[in-house]
Design goal:
heterodimer; A: alpha/beta; 4 domains; seven-stranded antiparallel beta sheet; six-stranded mixed beta sheet; 28 strands; B: alpha/beta; Rossmann fold; 2 domains; 10 strands; about 15% strand; globular
């Protein structure tokens, strides 16, 4: 397959299909691909425009057209005319409501290109959908109703398109037929938009007056608007520069997806090239390890390649046996990307449940998945007027700038340079939902300048001297469940057995180390994070650490578990029903909470997430504290 | 020197990327294989994605016992050529009750395909299943994600789909939940045919025109593939030059009269025809938004 230049003769499709199908196929197989999004509200005529593009490119079959005509009469909004919008409004429930509420993908083709259109809704509450559609687009068509001009939503859409790094923007001033194709009004709209665009950093865009409904300036230049001398929409879409081509000029980056090892003689690294070009003999560097080698061959089912470019999925063999696995990035040896674990980022929150600063989420970037925490946002951005607002968290559809910390260094590039190594998603560790998308801007100096200092006496040496295996015995349960009492009993027994222990008690820690923390969700998470870090240091010193904290959230208990070597974190669920704990009410706290004098009290107005698979469970209704302690110690044996 | 990738090269690279992500992240993936042209493309892409290894998952055919004979013949050969294990599942309850397309209408599809698929996924414990559905086939598909999440009871909730950004796919799930993955979501029917042509992929001969025994019933041109086809009063089989644009259970799949006997002729005919692909399938005409409803219930 060889590339086609735009100078080449383009055959007229219809005639060619009938007269010379082989010639037609030859043209078709050399088409390039452009992905774009359309942004606008229900009333801007967006669905009508897309329907028109499908209709004009003959992507609508007779049976669909027949269904369309009958649907148009039954529920269309265009009287007896064909309502193109009905072509693209997919799901039944939405069709009844007369609105599009999700991202839908449409396809059409012309003689030069195949197009994938992400159809994005314009409602305020669906920022997340537009960001999703924009993430894979080369170009954005921003629709404006010529009767209304630049609206709040126009600004919002433009900002989001710019945020996602789309460089090709078409300002389509639609419904020109309804303002008698008035040039003065059109010019005024373009002038207003130009001022706004430059204020948010959009340096270039292409404006055109159109009518999706009547077909003006869609496939051919409109006779109604001689003042417009640019290309009609389709011609513009057919010739605009592709991101995929621009990516080839950048340094080589290929995230490794999978190691291909059919037998002992073959070891290949599979992935999709994000940027750059590679050839056998090229010097490469594997990140984060920094090991170097050269490309020995590029393997495909169709034979070895002499060259592969950005966008292609390939399998590479190196000349040397160096470590390389999923999550690593193969890069140009003399121009590798950065590695860091602290970043400034812009985050778009996409879940109903708001961001919990400090909580650990999965962060997926390229083929790397790591545990990451988001700090409280520095500010959020009002997408309607671009104002910066102070915020403690990010709610659904909020966009904010915040620091991100990962639990191990990742290979990255600023999003502005590389979408693949700069764009990430956050995944909730419990629900597994994709809760946010984000863009990394730069690494924070702290991470680069703080290095881990290796010491000669390691945790094994500490533990060996004490003749025991370090552990964290993590007691979790409601207030009044008996955690402290039982933990105390366990420590007494361990002490008699000559074990070196230390008990970290919730109330005691809040008198000192954590006295600056309250009981909000964020503070509770920070409380547990600090306790986890202290417990880990003590375990590194060889101790058996007992902790007695309500620790209500699964995510934070799992965070501490993840910090420890396998088997050293023992989750002990002190299982006491709320009624029983409340009836005991040793410290009188439940009474206060019920009276509304104590906010965020676990079990009353703050949730407790019980462990799903605790290592040890004790039922304090059936057991006395001494019996529970005995049960726990028996489960812990042997202790060496 | 920039080498502009063609749309087929980019679609191929995307599909391969998706398949590798699944293999890297899933516990026990499987590829649904229906023997049709989309399945043929899927299988070919899988071979490319993992070459020189064979694709590291089995093929699964949800059999209704009512497929065309030619489909059964190619099924065995294709799996053998790819060096892959072929699993075939037939719903035992549908066998016991003798469910068939002549007497049972939409129950046929529900029992053999929807229930059969759920049974097979549960039986083998597959957590990710590749499917060959395309977004251009039908309106509700246009909004489905490439990684389409299913609950433990195989339910699809169109209002609660995970956002899919860039080429980042979230394959995490709880135990018993599963994901259907559609690597050729962004391909159109024309892309499929063009790719088959370019890559020389073997497909069922029924896609090519040949003289075959037919009857016309309820406006559909049906082929008599075996002696289980009960003729109604007055129906006389007629030999016609026909082919199929889509293949399913033979009593439910409408043929078109055609003389297209080569791939370029098929593509030519497709481009000049005026009815969409799914017109040939009885399943879509049951009720408005029928596919969407079927998918929520667990149909692929």
């Amino acid at each position: 397959m060889s590339p086609v230049t735009t100078d080449q003769v383009i055959y007229k499709t219809d005639d060619l299909i009938a007269s010379d199908i082989d010639a037609y196929l030859n043209v078709h197989q050399h088409k390039s691909l452009l992905r774009f999004i359309t942004c606008g509200s229900v009333d801007d005529g967006k669905s009508t425009l897309i329907g028109r593009l499908l209709y004009d490119s003959k992507m609508i079959f007779e049976d669909q057209l027949a269904a369309l005509e009958s649907d148009s009469k039954r529920m269309g909004t265009q009287g007896q005319d064909i309502d193109f919008a009905l072509l693209v409004d997919g799901l039944a429930a939405e069709r009844e409501q007369g609105i599009t509420i999700d991202v839908a993908y449409r396809f059409f083709a012309t003689e030069k290109r195949k197009f994938i259109v992400a159809d994005c809704p314009g409602h305020e509450q669906y920022t997340r959908n537009m960001v999703t559609g924009a993430s894979t687009a080369d170009l954005a068509v921003i629709l404006i109703d010529a009767r209304k001009g630049v609206l709040v939503q126009t600004r919002r859409h433009s900002y989001l398109v710019h945020l996602l790094g789309i460089r090709n923007i078409v300002l389509a001033v639609n419904k020109m037929d309804l303002i008698n194709y008035d040039q003065a009004k059109y010019d005024a709209i373009v002038a207003e938009y130009t001022a706004f665009a430059s204020s948010i950093g959009i340096s270039d865009f292409t404006a055109m007056p159109i009518s999706g409904f009547k077909g003006d300036n869609i496939t051919e230049r409109s006779v109604h608007m001689p003042y417009y001398v640019g290309q009609p929409l389709i011609a513009h879409l057919e010739t605009v520069a592709l991101d995929n081509d621009a990516d080839q000029a950048k340094p080589l980056r290929m995230p490794v997806q999978w190691v291909n090892r059919p037998n002992l003689d073959f070891r290949g690294f599979s992935g999709q090239i994000a940027t750059g070009i590679l050839r056998p003999g090229d010097a490469i560097r594997v990140l984060p390890s920094g090991k170097t080698s050269t490309i020995q061959k590029i393997v495909t089912l169709d034979g070895e390649l002499s060259e592969a470019v950005a966008g292609q999925s390939v399998t590479l063999c190196f000349a040397d046996e160096i470590d390389c696995s999923r999550g690593d990035v193969i890069a140009a040896a003399d121009n590798p990307p950065e590695v860091s674990d602290q970043f400034e980022s812009t985050i778009v929150w996409m879940a109903d449940e708001a961001l919990t600063p400090g909580r650990a989420y999965w962060l997926k970037l390229g083929t790397q998945t790591v545990s990451a925490t988001v700090q409280s946002p520095k500010y959020t951005i009002n997408v309607n007027n671009m104002e910066h607002l102070a915020a403690k968290t990010l709610e659904l559809n909020a966009i904010g700038v915040a620091e991100i910390l990962t639990d191990k260094p990742i290979v990255f590039e600023p999003y502005a340079n590389n979408r693949v190594l700069g764009g990430f998603i956050l995944i909730d560790k419990i629900s597994n939902a994709t809760v946010a998308a984000g863009m990394l801007h730069f690494s924070l100096r702290r991470a680069q300048n703080v290095h881990w200092q290796a010491t000669d006496i390691g945790r094994e040496a500490h533990a060996a001297l004490k003749n025991q295996k370090p552990k964290i015995l993590w007691f979790t349960g409601l207030s009044g469940s008996g955690k402290s009492t039982i933990a105390n009993e366990v420590e007494k027994t361990l002490n008699l057995l000559n074990r070196h222990t230390f008990l970290l008690d919730g109330d005691n820690i809040r008198h000192g180390l954590n006295k600056d923390l309250g009981f909000t969700e964020t503070d509770r998470i920070e409380n547990i994070r600090r306790v986890g870090e202290v417990a880990k240091l003590m375990a590194d010193a060889g101790l058996i650490v007992l902790t007695a904290f309500i620790s209500p959230f699964r995510a934070e208990r799992d965070m501490v578990r993840a910090m420890m070597p396998e088997g050293e974190f023992v989750e002990i669920f002190v299982d006491t029903p709320l009624e029983v704990a409340e009836a005991r009410d040793v410290k009188g706290l439940y009474k206060k909470a019920r009276a509304g004098q104590l906010k965020n009290f676990t079990g009353i107005d703050s949730p407790y997430e019980p462990p799903e698979n605790p290592d040890i469970r004790v039922n304090t209704v059936e057991m006395t504290p001494a019996e529970a302690a005995e049960h726990i110690v028996r489960q812990l044996m042997p202790l060496k | 020197m920039t080498k502009t990738l063609t749309h087929l090269e980019r679609l191929e690279a995307e599909a391969i990327h998706i398949m590798r992500e699944v293999v890297a992240e899933a516990d026990k993936p499987v590829m649904l294989y229906s023997v049709g042209k989309d399945s043929a493309v899927m299988l070919h892409l899988a071979r490319k994605a993992f070459y020189p290894s064979p694709p590291p998952f089995p093929l699964l055919h949800i059999d209704t016992t009512w497929k065309f004979k030619a489909m059964y013949a190619l099924r065995e050969k294709a799996a053998r050529d790819a060096g892959m294990e072929l699993l075939v599942h037939q719903n035992p309850e549908a066998i016991a009750r003798g469910i068939n397309p002549f007497d049972h209408g939409s129950l046929h599809t529900d029992m053999w395909k929807t229930e059969g698929l759920k049974q097979a996924l549960d039986k083998y414990g597959f957590d990710v299943a590749f499917g060959g559905a395309r977004r251009d086939e039908e309106k509700s598909r246009a909004k489905e994600r490439i990684f389409s999440f299913r609950t433990a009871t195989h339910i699809w909730d169109p209002k609660n789909q995970r956002p899919e950004l860039w080429n980042l796919y979230n394959a995490r799930k709880a135990k018993a939940e599963s994901i259907r993955v559609f690597p050729i979501s962004n391909w159109t029917e024309l892309d499929i045919w063009q790719y088959i042509h370019l890559e020389n992929i073997e497909i069922v001969p029924l896609y090519f025109s040949a003289p075959r025994p037919t009857v016309t019933r309820d406006g559909m041109l049906l082929m008599i593939d075996d002696d289980r086809f009960p003729l109604k009063d007055g129906e006389v089989p007629v030999e016609s030059s026909i082919r199929f644009r889509t293949l399913g259970c033979y009593p439910l799949t409408g043929a078109v009269v055609s003389h297209a006997a080569t791939l370029p002729e098929i593509i030519q005919e497709m481009l000049l025809t005026t009815t969409s692909e799914r017109q040939g399938r009885a399943i879509d005409h049951d009720q408005a938004a029928s596919m969407e409803k079927k998918k929520q219930e667990g149909y692929f």
